[in-house]
Amino acid sequence: xxxxxxEIETMPREQLEAMQLDLIRKKVAEMYEVSEFFRGRxxxxxxxxxxxxxxEDFRKIPFMTKSDLRDNYPDGLFVxxxxxxxxxxxxxxxxxRPTVVGYTRTDVDNWSNSLARGMTSLxxxxxxxxxxxxxxxxxxxxxxxxxxxxxxxxxxxxxSTGNTSRQIQLLQDLPVSVxxxxxxxxxxxxxxxxxxxxxxxxxxxxxxxIAGGEPWSESMRQKFQQRxxxxxxxxxxxxxxxxxMFLECEAQDGLHVWADLCYMEILDDEGNPVxxxxxxxxxxxxxxxxxFPLIRYKIGDISSLExxxxxxxxxxxxxxxxxxxxxxxxxxxxxxxxxxQIESVIGEFPELSPFYRITLTxxxxxxxxxxxxEFTEESLKEDTAQVNQFTRKVSSRLKDIxxxxxxxxxxxxxxxxxxxxxxxxVVDNRNYD
Amino acid sequence: xxxNIITQLSIFVNNEPGRLAQVVAVLKxxxxxxxAFNLAESTEFGILRTIVQDPEGSFExxxxxxxxxKKTDVIGIMIEDTPGSLMGAVDxxxxxxxxxEYGYAYTGRxxxxxxxxxxxxxxxxxxxxxxxxxxxxxxxx
Lengths: 433, 141
What we know:
The complex is a heterodimer of chains A (433) and B (141).
Chain A lengths: L5 H4 L3 H22 L1 H9 L10 H4 L7 H6 L13 E7 L7 E6 H17 L7 E4 L7 H12 L3 E3 L6 H10 L4 E4 L1 H13 L4 H4 L4 E4 L6 H11 L2 E7 L6 E4 L7 E2 L5 E6 L12 E7 L10 E7 L1 E2 L11 E2 L4 E2 L4 E3 L2 E3 L1 H10 L3 E10 L6 E8 L8 H19 L4 E5 L14 E3 L5
Chain B lengths: L5 E9 L4 H11 L4 E8 L3 E8 L2 H10 L4 E11 L7 H10 L3 E8 L4 E7 L2 H10 L11
Antiparallel strand pairs in B: 1-3, 1-4, 2-3, 4-6, 5-6
């Protein structure tokens, strides 16, 4: 078993936790000094940096949430000037307001290093050839994986997402050994290979894949592996952290969360830590992040953390499969979608009533989103060409806001179920078996 | 004699099995007799366009039953039972820039007509009057 940084990756838990507490205290002191937002948060509960002597003390600091990021758009939470930044990424956010994240050179280095450790743990090295099908650009997936792969010395093909026939052509023509993409895109590539008579085992050198950006299940992974002979490793991250950050090792038994970079808490609904291995809300503190620090950030994902030593020899805690969300965010084809975004688009059209229903399905593990909206009775047109044209107008506006295509269906007034109290707008029929 | 505008009822029906059957049952319940009809569909719902004897009364009855119904102006061009009898009106509209959105035929006991929906009913009627092309009146249906 190869390591990227063996000493730190195999450090005993007590030492790691001592290091974490030290980094936490330094980060809190620094942030109290330089971040008006963070100082305000501390003062709101009567804390000063001197009060933080233990993990228990640290838990008194209020959470950061996505709405803090939104309220401080675009760069209100940055604590370094643009002079010191080398990169900006932007991710989709609620109701049309994106999240902007900034990186110093050290941030980019720590990010790449986190991935290099993970890539080494799953068996990648300079001998590998990576076809990176994550989107390049504002999305963190493309460049994150790119930098990590280059750091381990692998050859990177920055193909980005889409153009599946070219993806498959290059998979055959070049010695690609690792494919990176969202689970649904990996399945799509496998489907198209089947349809066009390409055998991944015989016609390509592909042996590993890294899947991230959207949830999938263990049984989906098993199916993919059996079907293609390609071993798939999970990846977890978020643009608020840096981007994709944590990977599974060859044991495929949870994502190694580098404890010197990230202090991850798993909490119950009252904010108390759950015992190791039990599910709860993920709360993240980035210990070495410079430009855009995160302190006790409640990302909204639910999972569990295991501190038991992995069979690969690494001692850092392992994050198990993400098993849900604590808010109403949907992940559709790797893109975060909030029902409130859809609601705001519907509100732009006086022809539509506020009743809507989002239905998610995943034929062949490719997510599809159907948005049903009711016409108001007054604006109902008996000219079908006009109705179809209007449907296209709503579709295109939704695509602008969500960055993914939705199948818009305009239905008659009174068609959709009415709810007393909290409306149930989302029907998720996706099947991950 | 000036041209006639006929009131058509447009009944909206979701594209689901059994929906049309429900509407037809309501029509029967209300004692509404369809003299002519046509079915159209958009991607999500269908429209039953129909000519009935008492459009105003039928409209109220249907609305009271919770049916989504709208009134639409159409024109019934009288046609003879001979080839080419529709050509006069169609050529005229083409020449004068009146757009026909849809149409459907009606064969009555005494007279036959072609019901059309145009983008400008007033202009269409004026043109038909000018050229002496007969339109069907509500009483003649």
